[in-house]
Input
Amino acid sequence: MPTVPIEMLAGQRAESSGPVVVFENVVLAFEDKPVLDGVSFSVSHGETKALFGIAGSGKSSILKLALGLIRPDAGRIQVLGHDITEMSEDELLALRDRIGMIFQESALFDSLTVRDNVAFRLMEEGKLSEEEIERRVREALSFVELEHTIDRRPAELSGGMRRRVAIARAIITQPELLLYDSPTGGLDPVTSTTIVELIVKQRDVYKTSALLVSHRLQDAFTMATHYFDRQTNKMSSLPAGSKRELPVTFLVIRDGKVIFDGDAQQLASSKDDYIREYIS
Output
């Protein structure tokens, strides 16, 4: 992997003491069908929290709630220090500028080049010069090792490459929180590992907090047991007995409730029959 540009490293935000995301007794239903029933959890600065549960358990709804795209029926949600359940749409739009979202299907604009897809948010904001936008686009694409695709269109890229472009688009604004919706869904094992390595790189280089919906436990276990080695520019296994600088935690949802919230070791040693069956 290429060296991370110094200019982007300089843009890292200082950590603050409070949590980045807090859900307090959140209740959500669609047409009287319960989705979340009193869900509570928090995400600290630099933490990656992986959300698990069967299809329809409300994992993606949690991401939409964190973005303020939908509102809970009850409970409170704080994101980046703001109670988003009380915010207006204009206030939410401003907050979303500090959040990056990676969709499962990449959600790229087919009619735009890779350059314009990655630059889209910066061009919409209209605050930077064309030269600065071009520099930021190339840095973001270099980070995901796709600078050579800058003039291509999404249809010319593989599924894994499109997913990496989506990550570049999400990180170009140097967000304080990243939301991943099944980033390795539908990808082959080798490509999935490439995406996981990029997530680990983003976490360890920028110390960005993240909520990650996944259907692959092995991806989250890899994130929990590996780190990004800047000397080799590769993801490496944590030495035996060493402790992670940035936490990776697991949240398991069943029937609208949180039944587990802890680290990989606690998950692996759980005595709960449902969890043991889920991770087997």
Confidence is low (pLDDT under 50) at residues 1-15.
